[in-house]
Amino acid sequence: MMLRARDFATARGQRLHWCVARDIPLHRDDRDLPAAELDAKRSKWLLRPDQNTAHVASSVPLVKGLPVRLTDCINRRRFLFRGRRGYIHGWAPHPLEERQVVDDVVFLSRLPQTIYVHFPGATWQIEDLPQGVYPITPVSRTWLVNKRTKVKVRRTGFFLVPDFASTAHMIQGQSLEAAFADVVVKDIFDVATEEAFVMAYVMLSRAKFLHQLWIMQPFGQQLFLRGPPLGPELLLKKLRGELSPKEAQEAFDSAERAASNQTVEKDPMKRKFRCTACFLMRRKSCEKPPQTFGAFSSTEIFEKITYQGAWARCLACTELADQRRRELERRRRELASRHCRQGPQYRAHNASATGLEISSCGKQSTTMLRAQGSGVQVWSATCVEAFVAARSANSGRRCRNIATVRSRAKNARSSCAPSAARCGLQPNTRRRTAAITPPTKRGR
Ligand SMILES: [Zn+2]
Q1: Confidence label for 403 from pLDDT (cuts 50, 70 and 90)
Q2: Rounded Cα distance, 158 and 21, in Å
C-alpha cells in the first residue's frame, strides 16, 4: 500500500504525507508496560487489517487526488456507506502536529483534524465546501486484541483506506471498468474449498468487460471442477418438483457427510487432472495422472497442465492432434500444388470438394486467389502471371475483372522474350513477383 501511494504521489509530483492511528491500551497490564515495549506492541497492532480493528484503519496516506474507500458508514442521509469510493480533496492538519521527513515521506505526529474527501456523483453540498466534498473527522472505537482473553484497545483514526486494491469479500456486488484478479489463495495446488471457489467467482465476475480482466497468475483446474454448488442445486431441484423437502434435506445431509469424510490428496503428483480433449470426446476416463501429460514433477505439472488451463491435453491426445494437423497441412499443400497445375474448373471443383472456398478477384481488386477458411493464401502461377502482366500492361492500374486480367496477361506473355516466355513473366517484373508471392505455397 505504501509503495502504491508513493508511486501515486511521485506521478502527481506531490509529497506523500502519512498519518497513523493512535491505539490506547485499556488493559492495566498493557498500560503499565515500559514505553519501548508498549511501542513494540503498538507497531504490531498497526499491522492488523481494519476488519479486526472495528474498521478504523491503522494508517492513511495523504496525497491530493488519492483514491480512497470508506471502511464503515459515516453518513446514511448522504449515502456515505461502507465501500463508497472517493478522492482526497485536502486535509486540515492538527495545530500541534510535528513533521518528520524520512526518505521524502512526511510522517505526521498527530492525526489531521479533518480529511476532506470528494465523492463523485454526489449532488449535496456542505456549507462553503465544493459540491460532493465531505469532511471526515477522526473516530474512536474499541477493538479486541485477543478474543480469548478479551483484552481491548481503543483506537482513534479514520474510516478510510486507500482504494488501490480490494479483497473479494469487499468487492462483492460491485461492477468495475477493469480488474486485475489473483484467484490463487496460497498455492496453485491448494485444495479447492467452497470458499475459494466463491471468492474466485466474485473476482472473475467484477469487470464489466471480459477484455478488461487480467488474471495475475495461473490457477489450478481443481478450483472450477467442483461441480455445481450443492445448496443452490438442491434448491432448484426442489423448486422444480424433482425432490420432496425431505429428500432434499436427506440429499444435502448425505452430501455434507461425504464431503467431510472425503480425504483430499495433497501431493499433486498423486492427483488426477482432466484432459480436455478426452472430456470433449466423452471418453470414460478423462481424469488422468500427471505422467500421462508428460509431467513428472510439480514444476512440470505447472508447465504442462496448470499453465495450459482449459487446453490441457494428455500426450495421446496431443499426438493425435499433431497427426491430424500434419495431415491437414499435407492436404493443403497438395491442393495448392494442384491448384497451380490445373485449370480453373478443376480448381473450383477441387476447392469445393475439400471445403475450401476460393474467392474471385473482383471484390479484392487483385488477381490473387485466396483459400478462405484456412487462413492460407494460395497463389497460382497463372494468378501471379496475370497480376504482374496486368500491372505492367496497365502502368500500375489494377484490373477489376479476372477475365480482363487474363486476356491482358496472354497478350503480355506473347510479347515476352523466349527465355522469359517459359515462366510467362516479363524479365523486369520477376523480382517483384518473388516479393508478393508466398514462397512456400507457390507452384509446388
Ligand atoms: Zn486425452
Answers
A1: low
A2: 8
